[in-house]
Every structure is written in structure tokens, then in C-alpha cells.
Amino acid sequence: xxxxxxTITGMTCSACSARVEKAVAKVDGTKDVSVNLxxxxxxxxxxxxxxxxxxxxxxxxxxxxxxSVKGKQAAAKAAPQEDPVKKSIAEMKHRLVWSIAFLLxxxxxxxxGLFEKLFGLPVPQIVSEVFDGPQNAIVFAFSQFxxxxxxxxxxxxxxxxxxxxxxxxxxxxxxxxxxxxxAAALFGAFAIFRMGWGFGHGDMALVQEYSTNLYFExxxxxxxxxxxxxxxxxxxxxxxxxxxxxxxDLAPKQACVVRGGxxxxxxxxxxxxxxxxxxxxxxxxxxxxxxxxxxxSVDESAITGEPIxxxxxxxxxxxxxxxxxxxxxxxxxxxVGEDTTISQIIxxxxxxxxxxxxxxxxxxxxxxxFVPAVITIAVIAGGVWLAMGASVEFAFSIAICxxxxxxxCALGLATPVAIMxxxxxxxxxxxxxxSGEALEIAxxxxxxxxxxxxxxxxxxxxxxxxxxxxxxxEQQLLSIAAGLEQGSxxxxxEAVMTAARERGIAPKAMTDFKALFGRGVEAEADGHVYAAxxx
Length: 535
Prior knowledge:
It is a single chain. By secondary structure, the protein is of the alpha+beta class. Helices cover 53% and strands 16% of the residues. The protein is built from 18 helices and 16 strands. A hairpin with a 4-residue loop joins strand 2 and strand 3 (41-46). The chain is elongated.
């Protein structure tokens, strides 16, 4: 079985992800299909003897959505592309700002009388003269109609996607939103025609009746509120993707290799196994490999969590994304590109944020049948009220209310948002979570076993106790130690210097300083040789 990730386009709600999941699961040879609405991704396992990537993509396209192998589409484009997450946030913000800008005056025109009764807000005379009373009914209604049109245009994707999926027999959350909003707007337009009829035939009672049964503000409010939710969702996605970006930044973009006896700098993705790579102090290691020559100390805290640099010499292994601290080495690359340790960690975090917890699968199953059920209930409710003798307007308002308040986007979004934020914050703090299932199981953990000190310490060494020989004062020992360590960048040296600084002790002046690889440091003062290091 081969594991594969896809990018899915065109999904707008959990009913969409459930539909894609169901369509792909029907393809013979697929297993463990998981579609994530928040990351617009799908991961699955498939038997290459029974199916193929084109067959899987065709199943998604036939369901009404787009699909491509994750990473392939971007790689095929020569020009740098705008970050889709940032683009989505900017687009959502633009829609939201302008929707609110048109919604506020619509709400005020529609409800200024109610605002006066409930909150005591005085109504300006010009507003009363233009909008109040049966004689102004057409102006009152048509002003709202003109203001709500831009809101509907800005949020037209709800209508396009919603009705398209409805006609395909696969209604989703957008179908509920689009139907509710469009129905409210169309009824308002119908009310304007009825009021015009009333004026033309001197039937002011008809004008009065329809002027109090306008739903233009509801048509604008529905899509604006949904856009608020979508904007918050996009921001959550953007915040979490930063954790992956930070992980990706650990992998160096370039590498210095020796090819044909000549040193040359190449992009890290062009490295091949067997390349001889030159590392100088301060550089990040671009691949996993074995040291050929030279000695150095390597900061492996990004991978292991251990703050103390590890000494490396010929024959020792080095790991991608770790930092070469002091010496210069040549090493042979053994694992490059997506096979390196840091790439595997990035892939693990990416898969975890795109995976589903068992509770999320349950929510998606409910969402998949929820939308058609709500539409059916709305139609039945409206029909029952009509059969009981209620007016068309009342029955229609009941149906609209059911469509609007039953949009359970949170049902499909809450769990994937929680998983994505959880795995993202974990990665930000050096905690890698294998999957959504592991995250759900974690709530029942009652015992934690740590395998190394780097997991539970602060990530940097600190002087906690000073033990001196007989006849040596603590201040004297710390002054000598600080004098030895003041020329070193080693974390232990920094800990000694910090301890001396906090106690106000000046480092002893030293000469002939030497760094002894793998052992420590040595220097002279007042005719004595001082050394600090290991046994």
C-alpha cells in the first residue's frame, strides 16, 4: 500500500469533505481516506496494483471538486506563487469589511424604529421623513434592496457553490446559506412589486402589510455572519501554518559541495547522496551524513532537545538542520531532500495537522446527512403552516429561519481547527504529535515517562552548585573558571559566565588560551596553568 497526499479544491464545508471522502472510498484499492476541510487536503493509502493517482483524481473531479498530488502543482510552476493561506485571509478580510460597510446602513434603515423603542436611540428627522410611514414604503424597501445587492455580490460564492451542489443532488452548508439568503432577498423583491400594486390600486393596507414583511437585512446578515466565521477559520489556519514554516526554515536553502575537486554553492534540493559537503562554523547542516575529515561541535537541540553541543570527528554521523558550532568539517551526504530527518519531521507534523481524530469522523458522518435533512424539514414546516391556514409570508419566514439557523459549520470545523492548532502549537514548542488520533488519546494519559534530560529542562545549562577544594574560596574558583571560559561560545561556558556576572565576580585575566577538542579549555595566569573540561 502506498501513502499519498492530495490537495483538494472547491470544498466549502464539512458536507463537501464528507462527499469527497465517500467518492474516493468507493474507488477499489483505496484505504483510510481522510479529507481535511481546514487544510484542503486528502491523505489515503492505495494499492498500486488496483488503482492509480489519475483514477483517484477522477473520482474527486466526478464528485464536483478539484484534486492534485500535493506539492506537484506548485513544483510545476516556474514563477513564485503567492501564499494561498495569506491570499485567502486577505480576500476574506476584504469581503468582510465591505459586507459590514453595506450591512450597517441596511440594518439601520430596516430597524431604526426598533432601536428607538429598545435602546432609546433618537431617530433623526430626515430619516423619519424619508423612510417612515406607508407613503415612504417603496423608498424604505428599495433603499434596503440597493444596499443588500453589493453584499450578495461580494459573497456570491455561497450562492454559486450552494446551488451548484444542490442541483447535483449533494447539498452542503453553502446550499443552506445560499437558499436562506436568496429566498429572503427574492421575497423582499416580491414585496416591492406588491407595494407598487397597492399604490397603483389605492390599497394602502396591502402596502402597510408588505412594508413590515421585508427580509433584506436578513439576506445580508446571513452571508456576512458566515463570512465572519470563515475569516476566523482562515486566520486560525494562517496562525498554525506558521509553525510549519518555522520548521521548514530549519532546513538550509543552500549547501557548499566539492564536485570535481572544486567547491561550489548549490541549492540544498539539488544535493544527491554521496556529495561531499563542506561545513564552516555557524552553518546549518543540509543533509544527513557521515564526517569524512575535521573536528567540530554540533548543536543538535533542534532535533534532540539536548542543549549541549555534541563533539564530532571523522566517522561520526551528522543530522540535517543541526548547527555546526565551532570547527570546519567535510562530510558525505547519505540522506538528502525528503529523506532527511528534518523533512521527515516536517512531513509528520503536516500529516498530523491534516489527519482526523475519531470524533471528527463522527462529526463528518452527521454533517453528510444533515444538510438534506434540514432542507426537507424546512419544506415540510412551511407546507404544514400553509395547510393550517397561515399566510404565505409567515410560512415562508418559518422555512427561511430553519434554513438559516441550522447551518452547523462549527460541527465540521471545530474539531479540525482544534487538531490543527494543537499540532501547530506543539511543533512551535518542540512537541511533535503523530496524528489526530494520538491527540485524542492523549486526554486519557495519566503517566508521562521522559527518556532524556533535554525533554524536561529549560533547554540551557545553568550553574546550580559550586563545590570547592579545601582552602579555595567559591568566589576565587568562579573567577578562574570565568577567566577560562570567557573566550568560548560553548553553552557550558555561557552558564559559567552568567553565574559570575550574577554574583558580580570579574573573570581572572588569562593568557595563552587554548581550546582542546573533545576535552575542554586551557590557559595561563600568574605562572600557573589552569584547565576546565572533562576527565
